[in-house]
Amino acid sequence: DGFDEIESPVLRDRIVSWITSEAAQVSRCVLGSRPTALNVPIPGLPRFSIEPFSSAEVEEYVRRFPWADRSRAERLLAVLAGNAELAGLAQTPLIITLITLLCQHHEPDLLPNRRDELYERISRLLMGDWDVAKGYQRNHSLDDFQKRMALVERTAFVLYEKRKSSFTRHEFCQACLSGVPIAHFPPNVVEQLLGEIITDCLLTPASSEEYRFFHFSIHEYLAAKELARDITPVRLQRVLIEYFRSAGSWWEEVLVFYAGIKRDITAMVADLLFETLAGPADQTARLTLRLLRR
Known about the structure:
Layout lengths: L8 H11 L35 H10 L6 H11 L2 H7 L2 H11 L11 H19 L11 H17 L5 E2 H9 L9 H13 L3 E3 L4 E4 L2 H12 L6 H12 L6 H11 L3 H9 L6 H13 L1
Antiparallel strand pairs: 1-3, 2-3
């Protein structure tokens, strides 16, 4: 799973080579990936797409979820029945999982109905709101929640820009400190912050030495939050160029989250449609439509 998150093209090729070899035929292998990472068919490997949940499947999923309070299942289903946009989001298996996790600790009636707002609530939950909901108080590396959140968002952007979907503790700390005067955030504060977000499960182990955000889409959302802070379009234009250079395999979801956060993306769409960003027409059209939907 997560084939699209593998940074090394050499390692990707080795995996594809092995999975299509005779040695792999003794087992049933499934390669999980976002579509953009597999732009061409792989000989001998049938391609399937995960379909959205139907309304009945969403209902079954919610009812089967291991709720601490079973009444929340019915209340969540009632909210989904009365909110067409949220119900549409819930048809994506990942999103309905995040929604149900959120409803374990927040009232279903107060759920946001936009994707970016939903991810904001989830990231805040993982960054400390769970403790607040449980009435648990603990000391943090930075007492100011907004500063703590901003530091994690900027770190997520730096790592994403380096195409690091997984990273060592040292790489995380280096990304955290990049461009920040050391007097503001000394290394011991950054190390403590890293320990906190590992404890909170915002970061989860990827291997014996590396970590990653608990889901790649959370990493993308946090990177988009950092990008949305910019007043000038310099970084955004650089990101758009990198998006086209990657043939859409990198930055697309960040840009879609960005569109949802900013709400007004007139200048961004103008860049896509009228500037000389040598991108394929179908790629430009796909991204533009996704941005406008947000």
